[in-house]
Amino acid sequence: MGVKSALTIAGTDPSGGAGIQADLKTFQEREVYGMSVITSVVAQNTLGVEQVEHLPISFIEKQFDSVWNDIKPNAVKTGMIATIDMMELIAEKLKGSNVPYIIDPVMVAKSGHSLMEEESRSVIRNMLIPLSTVVTPNVPEAEFLVGFSINTQEDAEKAAKVIVEQLGAGAVVVKGGHLEGDAKDVLYDGREFTYFTSERLNTHHTHGTGCTFSAVITAELAKGRSVKQAVKTGKAYITDAIRYSLELGNGNGPTNQWGYRLQGLPNQEG
Ligand SMILES: Nc1ncnc2c1ncn2[C@@H]1O[C@H](COP(=O)(O)OP(=O)(O)OP(=O)(O)O)[C@@H](O)[C@H]1O
Ligand SMILES: Cc1ncc(COP(=O)(O)O)c(N)n1
What we know:
Blueprint: E1 5-10, H1 19-29, E2 33-38, E3 40-45, E4 48-54, H2 57-68, E5 75-78, H3 84-94, E6 101-103, H4 121-128, E7 134-135, H5 139-146, H6 153-165, E8 172-174, E9 183-188, E10 193-198, H7 209-222, H8 227-243, H9 259-263
Parallel strand pairs: 1-2, 1-5, 5-6, 6-7
Antiparallel strand pairs: 3-4, 8-9, 9-10
Helix pairs in contact: 1-7, 2-3, 3-4, 5-6, 7-8
Bound molecules: adenosine-5'-triphosphate and (4-amino-2-methylpyrimidin-5-yl)methyl dihydrogen phosphate.
Residues 10-13, 18-19, 42, 44, 79-80, 106, 109-110, 115, 207-211 line the site of (4-amino-2-methylpyrimidin-5-yl)methyl dihydrogen phosphate (MP5).
GO molecular function, one term: ATP binding
Catalytic activity: 4-amino-5-hydroxymethyl-2-methylpyrimidine + ATP = 4-amino-2-methyl-5-(phosphooxymethyl)pyrimidine + ADP + H(+); 4-amino-2-methyl-5-(phosphooxymethyl)pyrimidine + ATP = 4-amino-2-methyl-5-(diphosphooxymethyl)pyrimidine + ADP
InterPro entries: HMP/HMP-P_kinase_dom, PM/HMP-P_kinase-1, Ribokinase-like
């Protein structure tokens, strides 16, 4: 079996816990060859975001073409894509590509800083979500996508149905990190709901959880796993990454990319 590769299109985190850096670490841990296209350079750390600089569209396109025309990935994910121009470019590039496409619809960093321009939010919904294999919104992101509030599991199921059946996602995981009680994520693939539940871990070291979770799903789809298997592995991986999260920095520390090794979650059987 040849080596599998995955591409992340996202913003950076120089402190290494979220964005491109988290994605590449995750791909490596899941034994998939990782590649990246940078959309925005972000000065941030565990305390928050200081400054954001968007790269010119023509240069984002150059990066994309450099990778895609040489090493076509087995799966691609997008994280922070802030502007309408970036979304239009990605839609044009991915349309008809047949490569599994995972969207982590990053809108606001945990620290509260906006990572997506207000006017782009409806463009991700209308232009990119119909191209997706899986979308992984947290509760506030899912609320924006469907236009109603989510307070219960029933609301999360209702939102998941709308995102697949009306917005055109291939599948969706509405993440329960922002709800009360257990951390319960619901997958809807257009046929059935599957729940992935873990105990809620009592830590504020959760910088980059969403990036890491969606990067595992991307890596597993690159290896040819089913969406359900990929999400199952993503949930197991992120739970241990949070359980053993790292007390680094002075704010919300990063997750532990080696956490799953302590539990023995295998790479190849995932
Ligand atoms: N305290 C916690 N204990 C256990 N699991 C958690 C906890 N917080 C989040 N998770 C899990 O982590 C994964 C990511 O969910 P979360 O809601 O944190 O994403 P997110 O808000 O998009 O993250 P980010 O802000 O990094 O983009 C989900 O599987 C969720 O259930
Ligand atoms: C480039 C980039 N992408 C995504 C996040 C979200 O992660 P979090 O919500 O944990 O800050 C981030 N902070 N930076």
